[in-house]
Amino acid sequence: MMNKLINGKEYLLFLLLFCAGNMYSQQSLGEGSTAPIASPSMASMSRFTDNPVNQVTGQPNINIPVIEIPIQDKNIKNVFNLSYNPVYVWDSNFSASDVGAGWSLFGGSVIYKKIVEELDERYDDISRPEYQKNAFDDFYYYNLPGISGRFQIKRDVVNNTFSLVNMTPNNLKFEYQRSTNTATLKVENFTITDGKGYKYIFDDFDYEMRYDEDFFIPRKGYKSAYFLTKIISPIGKILATYNYDKKSKNRASTGELMYQYCKLKSVDTDLGKVIFDYQFDESLSGTPNDLYSLKKITLKNSLDQIIQTYTFNYITSAEPYEQTLRKRLLSSIVTSNRNDAEIERTTFVYNQENNNFLPTVNNSYCDWPGSAPQSFYTNYKFTNVLEKIISPSKGVTQYEYGNHEYFFEYTQEYLDSILPTYIDSDIQTVVAQPDFQFNRAQSNTYTFTISGDPNKKVGFMFSFIVQGYGETPGTGNPLDPEPEPFHTDFTISSSSGEVLYGKECFPKTIEQAQNTYYGYPGTYTVQFSGPGKSYGIFQIYEIKLKTGPIRKAKNTVHYGHIRLNKIKYYTGINETSPIKTLIYNYDNVEGTGSSGYVFNYDNDSKMSPNDGFIMYKNIKISEAGNGYTRISYLTPDDYPKYQDGGTPQFPVYYYPYYNITKEGLISKKEIYNEQNQLLRSENYTYELNNFTDQVREFYINYGLHLTKPAFVKRISQANKDYTKTGSMVESKKETVINSSNLGPDSIKDITSDGNAIEQQFIYPAGTSGYAHLENAHILSEAVQTINKNNGKTVLNSQVKFANNSLLPTSVVFVNPNDSSTKTSITYDQYDSAGNTRQYTSVSDESTGKGFPSVIIWGYNNTMPIAKIEGATITDIAGLADNIISKSNLDIDAASETELINALDAFRTNTALKKFQITTYTYDPLIGITTLTPPNGVRGIYKYDQNNKLKAVVNVNGNIIQEYKYNIKQP
Question: How many whole angstroms separate alpha carbon 716 and alpha carbon 705?
Fold first, then answer.
């Protein structure tokens, strides 16, 4: 009978979670957009900035490095990597990116716009009657190598001036060029300068039509994204050029640009080129998929020779039923060598079962979704969620997820309040009494009993199904039409004669009824009535509290949807027993309930509802045989908001340090062995401070909140290590952060024996002699380092940038005893690319003389091919011209032999016989091929077809070193 009851209500499970607050529309080519962020791929990236995706929110941290752009400058590291976010991968309102649902490819630098309610620059014609100088509130997201954040361009509507406000604490400098339109601000391009003085130029753009619900301005074109085109070093050298494939269309009648979409096509550097092959599929218009999909990445050296390729393969999700709503899923990444032979394959496996139907938050038993049985939470899965990663070595990493929980205090008042209805499956259960057969031909009156405290009202449910319409039981056909007139009704009364009125779960019909009642435990009478005779079954369901201690936690799939429960590691795809299992537990430290608390994403607009997420204050990670680690976090509630304006009905709250605390701050970390013995504890305390006084407005549950960009000013760490004998060793560490560039001002370690070891760092800003660095926005590099031991200076070194040079000219040490100085090294000469051509180890401070060395750069000025110790540039004169030209022509084995011969001739040149010379040759982007030291004993470096070093041999072919790799082939 209970199965019949549930099956009769299954259609209500189609009440899905409404996600309007963060909804991003499907991309439709040329039709414009009403989404806050136009591109599905950029919308996917924005969720990493807006929403915490880390351990404190129960999400797996999955990042896969794909390729590094070969940039000669060591200060620039541009790695393309895939990051995974499982939230909303099942929801068709959240589009799949160009690398598949849940995945985002970071590395391609971009500035993209998020529209808050209405487009900022919509009033761009001063002659129109609806023109106004509107306030600006849109946001711009930016991604640079290793840096991401948000900024706004604010408008002073009185003076009609504009200022860019960075909302993320960092030391970036932002500049923009505006169009000729004076009615409003339209940005043509952006330039961002990082703290080391490198400029990122954003010249190319996406263009979109924006549709707002405005009768006067129904459509407006705007630049929805700006793409990185160049990286320029502080000395003006172009380090990398980014090129894009563009799809665009102009209106035939007016020539107006309707849309333009850019996808990265290649990145060119002096060392080589990385080519991105995207497929553009217009048939995906109107589906939850980016119109672009990344198919292949190819790495080439400076000779245009293929080094490696990375192929991206996809499948289409099996769900939902509507094929137009199915998403792109990344199925594998295949790495191939220069001969197009497969080297490695990484495979991704997703859940393809469809049981995404979510119970609503609070409903009665009659409304079913709110009363999802416990089995729902233990058995449910979300479609399209990543479950396995199969590595190139065929090892398997398996992710097991579960539902979130949040802390809930079950007070007696709450327990009493839920007695009437089944609304909390965590502590309530429904117990079915045996079926009651009724036959109105025999009797219209039946009794049943409800158990419990006779002094406290409880809830129960009555359900009946009519199986016959006056026929003799067992001989009638249930499919026969009912005779007229016919009607079956009932009333339920208590032993005292009180008639109970229940809540109907479904409209009462001639065939069945289902109602909930609220009354005192005891005996009840059900009286059937109505014309005609009938027979059937009725059943009573008692709503009870579960036995045993009440756990202070509520199950939910509404806040963040899924959380990581386990990670299992297998040595092979056919293995059934993992070699390692990590188990994640999110209970509070006391073990009495969940440590999770509900927070809301901070909305930029009050027009859309907030979606919630869970943050856990305590996480326990266990591994069988290796004990466990317990980590405690600080969350926004540890720095509580307070009212700062508004009215009692509509208060305005100030939320201090919100940009930091919403990511979670570790407060304690404890490591235990398998016997539950504490091995190590780490306690963290923080001093937080505002980075600027710029106030940011955001909304939580439609309420206005204020905050300021904040940063961690000081981190103090106290460590305790415990031995097996019970003794304890203490140490401390304190880091103070510079408020202007977010680098360390000082790092202080107090060892277990009480010694205080400290490093202090001085930066260019405000330091005498370094104004030209500050003007070039070179702020992050320390120009002076002071080492102290128990407060006494033991080392003081300075990096000099003389004669307004933006490159180091010398390193000087200051004697801590008498403040005298000694120059240890001078950088005498650089080339136009910033490569060091000559440096000198100084031995005579008074004359500056010392031991010089010269470096000869070849391969089109990208690699050192010779080091001459003891020589100066004057000594070399034009003797290196031949080896430089030969290196520029080194494209194969024959040309490399010519280069080696030229290098040998250079080494044995009688004009250089008094110098120590080391020479080098290379296979560009693979590695060094020969190294010949001053003694002439050459080492030859051999690589396999996969570009891995396999051996170092001498000129006779004898192996000096050999390398072996244990990699299973696909």
Answer: 30
Residue 36 near residue 50, CB atoms below 8 Å: no
**Residue 2: which of 505, 434, 409 has the closest Cα?**
434
With contact defined as beta carbons under 8 Å apart, do 657 and 688 qualify?
A: yes
Element (H, E) at 861: none
Q: Which two tokens stand for residue 942?
A: 């051999």
Q: Identify the bridge partners of residue 786 per DSSP, sorted by sequence position.
A: 760, 796
pTM of the model: 0.87
Asked whether 450 and 462 are in contact (CB, 8 A), the reply is no
Provide the b/e sequence for 105-133 (b: ≥16 CB within 10 Å). bbbbbbbbbbbbebbbbbbbeeeeeebee
CA atoms 277, 282, 285, 287: torsion sign: negative
Cα(402)–Cα(59) distance, integer angstroms = 11
Distance between CA atoms of residues 11 and 873, nearest Å: 84
How many C-beta atoms lie closer than 10 Å to residue 812's C-beta?
18
Residue partners of 162: CB distance under 8 A and separation at least 6: 136, 153, 154, 155, 156, 178, 185
- In Å, the largest CA–CA distance within the chain is 126
- Nearest residue to 597 (alpha-carbon basis) of 627, 640, 567, 565: 640
Task: Identify the H or E element spanning 646.
Answer: strand 642-646
Which residue, 615, 707, 713, 697, is CA-closest to 658? 707
3-state secondary structure of 228: strand
Phi, psi torsion values for 772, nearest 5 degrees: -70, -30
Give yes or no for residue 366 having a pLDDT over 60: no
pLDDT in tens, 305-337: 999 999 999 999 988 888 889 999 999 999 999
Question: Distance (Å, rounded) from C-alpha 430 to C-alpha 2?
Answer: 10
The residues, ordered by sequence, that sit 6+ positions from 619 with a Cβ below 8 Å of its Cβ are 55, 56, 584, 585, 586, 595, 630, 631, 633
Nearest CA among 291, 311, 309 for reference residue 300: 309
The DSSP H or E segment spanning 771 is helix 771-775
800-832 pLDDT tens trace: 999 999 999 999 999 988 889 999 999 999 999
Q: In the block, which residue shows the tokens 């016959």?
A: 468
Say if strands 404-406 and 554-556 run parallel, antiparallel, or are unpaired.
antiparallel
Alpha carbon separation from 818 to 99, 821, 844 (Å, rounded): 62, 9, 18
SS3 7: helix
Beta bridge partners of 487: none
Q: For residue range 376-390, list pLDDT tens digits in order.
A: 677 677 889 999 999
The number of beta carbons lying within 10 Å of the beta carbon of residue 249 is: 14
Average pLDDT, the chain: 87
- Which amino acid appears at position 109 of this protein? S
Find out whether the peptide bond into 485 is cis, omega within 30 degrees of 0.
Answer: yes
Q: Taking residues 779-796, what's their average pLDDT?
A: 96
Question: What whole-number distance in Å separates Cα of residue 864 and Cα of residue 873?
Answer: 15
Identify the band that residue 87 occupies on the pLDDT scale cut at 50, 70 and 90.
Answer: confident
Residue in 893, 886, 900 with CA at minimum distance from that of residue 923 = 893
DSSP state of 587: B
**Residues near 719 by Cβ (< 8 Å), separated by ≥ 6?**
680, 681, 682, 683, 730, 731, 732, 733
Least Cα distance to 525 among 434, 449, 437 occurs for 449
Question: What is the per-residue pLDDT for 516?
Answer: 85
Compute φ and ψ for 734, nearest 5 degrees: -135, 130
User: Could you tell me where the beta strands, DSSP code E, fall in 658-791?
Assistant: 665-672, 678-690, 696-700, 703-707, 710-722, 728-737, 744-750, 756-762, 784-789
Residues comprising the chain, all counted: 970
**Residue 242 or residue 529, greater confidence:** 242
